[in-house]
Amino acid sequence: MADRSRLSARLRGTFDRVLVHDIKNMSFRLRLLLSNLDEHWEDPEFRKTVRELLASSVERLEDIVGRFVAHENALMIKVELDVNGLLRQVAQRPPRRSSRSAPAPPVTLELGEVPRIWGDSYYLGDAFASLLENALEAAAPEGKVVVRTFARGAARRPRAVVEFIDNGAGMSAEFLRDRLFRPFETTKPHGVGLGLATASQIVSFHRGTMRILSRPGGGTLVRLSLPGVAEAS
């Protein structure tokens, strides 16, 4: 019973950080929109962007509220998931941080054949979105981001590997060693430092691992390894 209580408390803490992260990102997007409203309102493309951003923000808020009400005890609901399908959905979402002066670089999907996994699409989707967002911000407009998947392991113990790769500025060994996974530690001027720390916990709750390879000037690779559903014998 004590172990279940501790797990519930950890899930509750992770869920709260997901909420804070989402709400902070929406606040940033809406603040950017507001700051550009007067200058660009006559531009039809800008008005289209406003509608899309508001619609996506309302949808996300409704999703947050629905999830909170339905799962007040922070339950994680795992079903068989198509990792590649979830990644495609995440890649198609409007950027959670965006501005007209700094368009996001393109995302290249290199999705191989991977086993299905047991996972919660809400939590895991948030982790994928956070890691993709980090890669996009690190790469900058002229950079590039690659999301790659492939399988590892034998048929009886398969694993789905997901990699988020950017060619941005990279991170120092000191930051990787001492500060990377601490909540509220961030190198981004408008970040809250919750994305990577929360994503790491979500991956751990899915019995997965996260490894990060990075060096100054050499970009960053974030590799997730998640246990797959074994093939029927």
List keywords for this structure.
5-stranded mixed beta sheet; 7 strands; two-stranded antiparallel ribbon; 233 residues; globular; alpha+beta
Notes on the structure:
The chain is of the alpha+beta class. Helix content is 48%, strand content 18%. It has helices at residues 2-40, 44-70, 83-92, 121-139, 173-178, 195-205, and strands at residues 79-81, 107-111, 117-119, 145-152, 159-166, 209-214, 220-227. The strands form 2 sheets. It has a 5-stranded mixed sheet with strand order 2-4-5-7-6, with helices on one face. It has a two-stranded antiparallel ribbon with strand order 1-3. A hairpin with a 5-residue loop joins strand 6 and strand 7 (220-227). Helix 1 runs antiparallel to helix 2 (44-70), helix 3 (83-92) packs across helix 4 and helix 4 (121-139) runs antiparallel to helix 6 (195-205). The longest helix has 39 residues, at 2-40. The two termini are 35 Å apart. Residues 184-194 have low confidence and may be disordered.
